[in-house]
Amino acid sequence: MDVVSDAISVVRTGRPSSNRLRVSGRWCVRLSAYEGAGFHVVLGGDCVLLPDGGGEPVALGTGDVVLLPHGAGHVLADGPVSAGDARRAVPFEEVTEADVRQVGNGPQVELLCGKYRLDRARVHPLMAELPEVVHLRNRIGAHPELRAAVDLLARELTGDRPGATLALPSLLDLLLVYMVRAWLTEASTGAWSAALSDPVTTAALRALHAAPSAPWTNARLATEAGVSRATLARRFTSLVGRPPMAYLTWWRLTLAATRLRDTDAPLATVARDAGYASPYALSHAFSREFGVTPGRYRQGVRAV
User: Fold this and answer.
1) What is the pTM for the complete model shown?
2) Interatomic CA distance for residues 116 and 169, integer angstroms
3) Nearest-CA neighbor of 117 among 254, 18, 225?
4) Sheet order of strands, 65-68 included
5) Mutual angle of helices 199-210 and 218-225, in 10-degree steps
6) Using an 8 Å Cβ cutoff, are 22 and 109 in contact?
7) What's the rounded Cα separation, in Å, for the pair 155 and 169?
8) In degrees, to the nearest 5, what angle opens at C-alpha 99 toward C-alphas 97 and 101?
9) Over the stretch 257-279, which tens digit does the pLDDT of each residue have?
């Protein structure tokens, strides 16, 4: 797997949910903060997103996509709203999928609004680096995969199409990948957009993610990246924020935690797949990283 896929897969839990929102005239709805990520796709019309906490309003047009990767609360409205109007916004939960709220005359706006469930306990630094609001404008020629996913989503939402129950969640998963990919392409600042643009760091990351349980050393990884150990250490540490072997240890333990959460695999299997020689070796490293043994960690996440 590649770094972006891995960064998303370890944090994603459950299946995404979505609702269509069709409104017209004067309207204002509130979406509360969420332990996950929220997104909106503007299928038709124009509206404004106002983040909680005094963030700048974001004007959205047809075809625009917006991701709120840290689950920030926000308001959606037909246009700029005052602080008082924002406080009186209708809770999103009170607006059903079939509801069309008509207050006076005005153009209709149609949105696909949804959420991804995320496990914040092991967020990859790539995902943590995403800003509170990622606005991806509908521009000709920009991000063709994202545009194609938006078009497919719009079609799946039109009428009672056979297989839509299976197709829609899969398209929403694709949408998340394409949103993160588009942000990485557009980001002018940020460590991870730079890291994934650097051929040496990218080669090392791909090697570690492709075979995390392999017996990696700095020398072997430097050979894989085609540079000296000193060059690898300098460039990798500068862009990723930690040395290659430290990143590998963190990633192995993150994978182990994901296996403990999502499977019933024996501890010996989890240890082997994460690159540890024995359950004891994994338990020692895991306790140092998470402050709890693997067994207690599994019990805790299963009880939630």
Assistant:
1) 0.86
2) 10
3) 18
4) 100-103, 12-25, 108-118, 36-44, 65-68, 134-136
5) 120
6) yes
7) 14
8) 140
9) 999 988 999 999 999 999 999 99
